[in-house]
């Protein structure tokens, strides 16, 4: 017999049974579900990652929907179990859904929710923070200070890179990449070079206008260039931030050959997906080029790092916290809950999953819609007319 899973129950008499595989930040998401006749069961197991068997036990034989996490393996086994239990909805508390077999969900008629639109600025801020921390060697200096090694100012102590007037490179100029570019340009008056399959007209117009503003105030204007290739960005930029989607074309996008193209004192930042960097090659490059630095929020084999990376002083590594601001994480929990609730209630799908402000306004009732269902078209779900 399977070991019972520990849970916390809200609104025990609710008509619709919804399971959350983890406790999530905030309380609004709980209230939204319980106020709409849902019995909410939150898993309280002391495990970072639940197994498939754990989640099967949570689903049981009667479950209308599940809120889950990016670390869980959602495939045929779980989706067929959810269907048998009467469920129609699963939502990641994440914008990504690499952990989800969408084809399996489609076969079982399960709507897949995610949470875009709420983490753009927070993720961009973390990428900018990693850029500064790596360029100015802040983590190295912090460790040095805490170890009691500082005995006075020295001319060469932790000399890093100046950002002002340098070139920031962005690979993938979507919402997050563009937000990051603006922060680096406004904050440090950096010039921009970017590569994307699609022209980022809004970003280009912003840089042009900001450059004109600086010039009008007697300062050196910033510039922009849309690169014809990713390699052009790697060769020219002083700081490079990766913001691509993860698919077959972007797996190991950064490999030994492309690392070799970069400047010896370049800074490389990744807050997108771990496998876009060949981490073994990166360790070798860091070891051979001590003034090359990286800032990493994601890793190829999470939660693990490739051997040697943890020992690299020229690497700043943080545990996948790009979306970890209070406002964003509470918003993600709200959107995930509303995806599941909306499907249970038969609501249509919101027309623009990136325009989620109406769902996050705590002073007003959220629209009667699912904020974001990635397989809405495959399931033939109606779109909101609001």
Automatic annotation (TrEMBL):
UniProt KW 4Fe-4S keyword: no
Gene it is expressed from: LOC123135337
Domain D-isomer specific 2-hydroxyacid dehydrogenase NAD-binding: 130-322
Location of the D-isomer specific 2-hydroxyacid dehydrogenase catalytic domain: 28-347
Taxonomic lineage: Eukaryota, Viridiplantae, Streptophyta, Embryophyta, Tracheophyta
Any single GO CC term annotated in Swiss-Prot or TrEMBL for this entry: peroxisome
Entry protein name: glycerate dehydrogenase
Organism, as annotated: Triticum aestivum
Pathway: Photosynthesis; photorespiration; 3-phospho-D-glycerate from glycine: step 3/4
Subcellular localization(s) per the UniProt record: Peroxisome
């Amino acid at each position: 017999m399977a070991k019972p899973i520990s849970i916390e129950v809200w609104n025990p008499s609710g008509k619709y049974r919804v399971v959350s595989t983890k406790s999530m930040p905030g309380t609004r998401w709980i209230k939204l579900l319980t106020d709409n006749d849902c019995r909410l069961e939150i898993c309280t197991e002391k495990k970072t990652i639940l197994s498939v068997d754990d989640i099967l036990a949570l689903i049981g034989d009667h479950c209308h929907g599940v809120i889950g996490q990016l670390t869980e393996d959602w495939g045929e086994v779980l989706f067929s179990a959810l269907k048998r239990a009467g469920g129609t909805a699963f939502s990641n508390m994440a914008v990504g859904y690499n952990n989800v077999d969408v084809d399996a969900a489609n076969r079982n008629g399960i709507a897949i929710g995610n949470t875009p639109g709420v983490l753009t600025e927070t993720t961009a801020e973390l990428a900018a923070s990693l850029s500064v921390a790596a360029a100015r060697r802040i983590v190295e200096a912090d460790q040095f200070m805490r170890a009691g090694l500082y005995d006075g100012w020295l001319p060469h102590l932790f000399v890093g890179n100046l950002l002002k007037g340098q070139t920031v490179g962005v690979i993938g100029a979507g919402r997050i990449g563009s937000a990051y570019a603006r922060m680096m340009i406004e904050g440090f008056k950096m010039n921009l070079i970017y590569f994307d399959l699609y022209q980022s007209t809004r970003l280009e117009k912003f840089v042009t206008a900001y450059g004109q503003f600086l010039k009008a105030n007697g300062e050196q204007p910033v510039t922009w260039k849309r690169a014809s290739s990713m390699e052009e960005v790697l060769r020219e930029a002083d700081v490079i931030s990766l913001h691509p989607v993860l698919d077959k074309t972007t797996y190991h996008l950064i490999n030994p050959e492309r690392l070799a193209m970069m400047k010896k004192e370049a800074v490389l930042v990744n807050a997108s997906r771990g496998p876009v960097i060949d981490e073994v090659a990166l360790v070798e490059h860091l070891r051979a080029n001590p003034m090359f630095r990286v800032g990493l929020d994601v890793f190829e084999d999470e939660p693990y790092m490739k051997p040697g990376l943890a020992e690299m002083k020229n690497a700043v590594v943080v545990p996948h916290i790009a979306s970890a601001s209070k406002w964003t994480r509470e918003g993600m929990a709200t959107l995930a809950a509303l995806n599941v609730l909306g499907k249970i209630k038969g609501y249509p799908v919101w027309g623009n999953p990136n325009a989620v402000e109406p769902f996050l306004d705590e002073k007003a009732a959220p629209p009667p819609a699912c904020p974001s269902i990635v397989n809405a078209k495959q399931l033939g779900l109606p779109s909101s007319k609001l």
